[in-house]
Amino acid sequence: MSDTLAERIAAAGLDASGPAVPRHPDIAEWRAPTRADIDAIHAVTAAADRVDHPTWVTPREDVADTFDLPEIDHARDSILAVGHDGRVVAVGTSLRHPDASVRIKAYLQGAVHPDRRRRGIGAQLGRWLHARALQQLADTGSTLPGELDLYAQDGNDGAVVIAEALGLRTARWFTTMVRDNAQPVRESSPPEGIRLVAYAPDRSDDARLARNDAFRDHWGSLPTPPERWQQFVGGPFFRPDLSTLALEPDGRIVAFCLASVNEDDWASLGASNSYIDLIGVVRDHRGRGLAPRVIARTLQAMTDAGLEKAVLDVDTDSPTGANTLYEGLGFVATERERVLTAEF
């Protein structure tokens, strides 16, 4: 592509000059958030979570972490809606992915408190986020492809209507799958020369590079930069003892299964559980049966730790046939989430 994103956005009849302050009779003030708003943001997000995906709730730590991410400028990228009673009732952020090597991507993330829905607040929030995301893409001056993404849980029809009104269309579905760890884990030895070990902190960047290689051909995936990776593996929920690395004799990481535990989700799911965040095999080692082996080791570690369930999310059109793999390991589909996308 030779024309810039700004030119392509303009050619589509869209304005990338930036968002105007929304207006709504139920909202006394629209403003940018500060660190002092972390609890208020989390309160809205958690209330929305309990309606939109009742088996898990966004941790407060995840909200707080956004104020330390270099790619988010809350003064420009985020907005709060404050009701006449002084309570925050809606929140939103347009997050541009920090990697710009392949495409320029922004995520529209927002929530309206369930007791303030169906009043048009979400539509106003969505228009603001869309305008800010277009501005973020245009301001890069890049000629790379551009993309806007919005994730909506199956059943969250309001979010879908808002996204479609902004020109986004459903591009992909992801499925949540749950496994009862009372099922025995099938034992199998790794291929000759491969060792399965627990994750070790001194392998952090090696694991990041393995993740970036493994996910290069996965839909929607972009490389994870060191800062964002460290926030994940150095965070309060990541569990090195449950996570697995597959190593070649020279120590190179060729496969991984990384897991976390958030005890706040246990009541929502009705059982103690661990979430499998990432499963991958570097591309020159695919077809050797490494994925089921690293998963099996992690599942056994969960069982040994007394965790009743394992949870993961999978792209329904995964190029590696992950759905079939997970079903064979005892995972059962429970919920679905769609990704609505606009490309430029």
From TrEMBL:
<dbReference type="Pfam" id="PF00583">
    <property type="entry name" value="Acetyltransf_1"/>
</dbReference>
<dbReference type="InterPro" id="IPR016181">
    <property type="entry name" value="Acyl_CoA_acyltransferase"/>
</dbReference>
<dbReference type="GO" id="GO:0016747">
    <property type="term" value="F:acyltransferase activity, transferring groups other than amino-acyl groups"/>
</dbReference>
<dbReference type="InterPro" id="IPR000182">
    <property type="entry name" value="GNAT_dom"/>
</dbReference>
<protein>
    <submittedName>
        <fullName>Mycothiol synthase</fullName>
    </submittedName>
</protein>
<feature type="domain" description="N-acetyltransferase">
    <location>
        <begin position="28"/>
        <end position="192"/>
    </location>
</feature>
<feature type="domain" description="N-acetyltransferase">
    <location>
        <begin position="194"/>
        <end position="344"/>
    </location>
</feature>
